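For this section, I looked closely at the sequence of one protein beside the tokens encoding its backbone, which the following lines show:
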Amino acid sequence: MPINIDENIHKSVLLAETLEVLKPQAGEIFVDATLGLGGHAERILTDSGDARVFGIDQDAEAIAIARRRLERFGRRIEIFHRNFSDIKRVLADAEIEKVDGVIADLGVSSLQFDSAERGFSFRFDAPLDMRMNPEDDETETAADLLATLSEFEIARIIYEYGEERKSRRIASRIVWKREQGEPIETTKQLADLVEKAVGRGKQDKTHPATRTFQALRIAVNGELEILEQFVRDSVDVLKTGGRLAVITFHSLEDRIVKQTFQKLAGKCFCPPRQPQCSCGATREIEILTRKPIVASEKELEENPRARSAKLRAGLKMN
């Protein structure tokens, strides 16, 4: 029997739309590169006969839940505790050369946001951690970054990754607190500091610390640095006619995915007068989504966290 997953904990975003672009068929092989709690993988396995799925996730807690949820599919599902950027190594370990489809849902899961101790959300007062894989002792936490980086570097991260216009003011206050012997070590400390630095209008729908928290999460986990290569690696492991579906949740991710898709579809991004292309544009895929697919009004009513989700997809040509 299927395991019951609390709908308040897990709602797979753009589920029907993702299955529509992947078009899973019996006997095909898929990679769910960000398995999470297994919602997308479950639908692929349920809807496509004897299809197989290789699931990848760096969150051990999510993997434990996904294993229970998907255990009824037996050997049709294999799960790896790795980062999605390891997709080629995972398939090599599994002795799989090519697959029919790859999906990546790049959002932080509700499980992570709702786990106070993970430090992703300012709704809880908790240590400022933000590591996707909390078992990775080699990755610095958000508190570590704020305790060691220069004011310039902190401001750069908040501006570039959070698109926060008042990043310098926030960084200045963080460093001032640090120099006073009061380093920012908890989510509440950071949220309160940002609110005081930025201010909050009565009409603001989101907390003023939202962009800063997003920026630190991206920096801690190196999310943007590995994204373009992941898209390229995913296309490499697809069979001819295979499909890649990527769901993003903020403009920086979406821009990287969009531009990488365009390069892989043959669009050159070099300066107009440059005599020879050096940007790596090649004709490897057909873009299936000229505009990103977004959540329907019905889904937004049921799952407000889908409001910023964008789905882009491509088809491997050769």
Remarks:
- Confidence is low (pLDDT under 50) at residues 1-9.
- Residues 50 and 66 are 19 Å apart (CA to CA).
- The chain has two domains: 15-106+225-316, 122-221.
- The beta strands are 29-32, 52-57, 77-81, 99-105, 238-248, 285-287, 310-316.
